[in-house]
């Protein structure tokens, strides 16, 4: 008979005793269970004992967590938490250094348990640990154990960090500032000050005034990963607690001391792997660095600011100064204003007064900062961008100013500028520590990428939002790779062309649909021969319908037409000249015939003889992309029948059909697209009944055969 659901079978052990195997009734009070366990071992005063989990942190069993006991759990009988707390706190006052050390070690072992921690705290355990830390009689292991135990007890949140005394915090600061200090003490002291700074603004100001930035830089430059991590934690805590002006001053000072270069070379690219905690602190530091851009992002352009008007004029002059000088000399004020307004339009502003474009927040003045940085740091690329687009047709030009404003918004969104830091995120980008002015440099790469993508998409003004979506995807995908430098980012993002983005979208869509699962791929492979046969049949039918082709004279004129088709029995190509304006001829009326059996090979592109004879050039490229020929036996000589397809589609259909006639595979792009479309449709039809049914990656294993086949029925034996 199965035991009731609230009864679990467990083992209880005790030192120097035979373990007990009992059935624990979860409905029975814990005190009664303890009484039964103690009685089995003839132990009086069961209230002096408690049960603990035998593994892990040896947590005490209470009425709150007893449901975590499962069948097969191993518990141990130990001293009750209140009596154990009293014993260990008495040990902290021992005259013997070894006695204090043992008491601290045992206290540290039990401190993660909330039940035990409450008993210690209620008996002024934190004050006793604080006394050991403040006295500082032993700067070695005893101090390190006391700090660690203090931190463990405070982590439970029973007591607020704000209750710590100023002398206590100052003493911990002394341990951080000491030159000769035990290596195990300073990381703990730094960790304690980090918690104080994050939890108490008042004590945080004390820590900020007592711990100089230079001291933290010294700790960061020590090749001790734990010390580096805790120093970085305190540094980010101090930065988070500072005002925006103080934070800017602190970061500028740290950058002057080459902290960025040190982080990049000795922490990010250290031989030792980067820990999760350090990765989080680097993420916070990156977020705080980018957060310095928020005031500019939230500030609109002031049309009455002389400085900002001059910056706009500098932007215009950097692109059009030679032209402006030649056209503006000796002009009236009205004519000069009209000229400036036209040039601002060419620059890509939506309004003749560019201040109106920059009144939007975000990006506010940050967009102007980016444009100015690009024009000054990459003047040739800036001039090329503006002049190249201003020389295009109006509908095809990529507006620099509008693109810059939208791109700045996009970058702020991707990099979470101005958003509060996550408490757990580790998503920092190494390249922001490998480059000064990293945000502006990233903008310079991104604006050139936008212009490149605009040309690849052959975009018009109506496609602006579509281009920005593609650029966003290009930047997001590349940033997710966490390139280690700006140059590597530039290389990777430029390799992610518009065509590659489309391919990745298609692949991801197929993954979401489950089309790339191994069983589906196997099904597609089985369907391919049948569908290729269907495409082959369609191509041959198209050849039987026939097509009008142009003849190209020596002067490159395409004024003569001829018609070619395949006979219904697929054995003869029939062709002949056709007069313009006359309907399509019937196959019987065509004078020339070419038996398919006489065809040797199919030639395409530059291999065709009628293309080789015409020389080279841009016009010729348009021709050879549509050219194909068939070579055939004409007596003892080799002759050619030359074609110029009227369109790319006709080129694919005819080359596929002729390849099928010759027994060769159909390798055109049109065949690939048709096959993919047919495979997708056929696969979906086959899987209609399996909708919402998960398809396993691997087929289920075939069970082994039975040991005998005695269960088989012998049909040859007649029944009586």
Automatic annotation (TrEMBL):
DNA damage as UniProt keyword: no
Annotated protein name in UniProt: ELMO domain-containing protein
Function field: Involved in cytoskeletal rearrangements required for phagocytosis of apoptotic cells and cell motility. Acts in association with DOCK1 and CRK. Was initially proposed to be required in complex with DOCK1 to activate Rac Rho small GTPases. May enhance the guanine nucleotide exchange factor (GEF) activity of DOCK1.
GO molecular function: SH3 domain binding
GO biological process: actin filament organization; apoptotic process; cell motility; phagocytosis
Keyword list, A-Z: Apoptosis, Phagocytosis, SH3-binding
UniProt lineage: Eukaryota, Metazoa, Chordata, Craniata, Vertebrata
Domain (ELMO): residue spans on this chain: 307-479
Pfam families xrefs: ELMO_ARM, ELMO_CED12, PH_12
InterPro entries xref list: ARM-like (IPR011989), ARM-type_fold (IPR016024), ELMO_ARM (IPR024574), ELMO_dom (IPR006816), ELMO_domain-containing (IPR050868), PH-like_dom_sf (IPR011993), PH_domain (IPR001849)
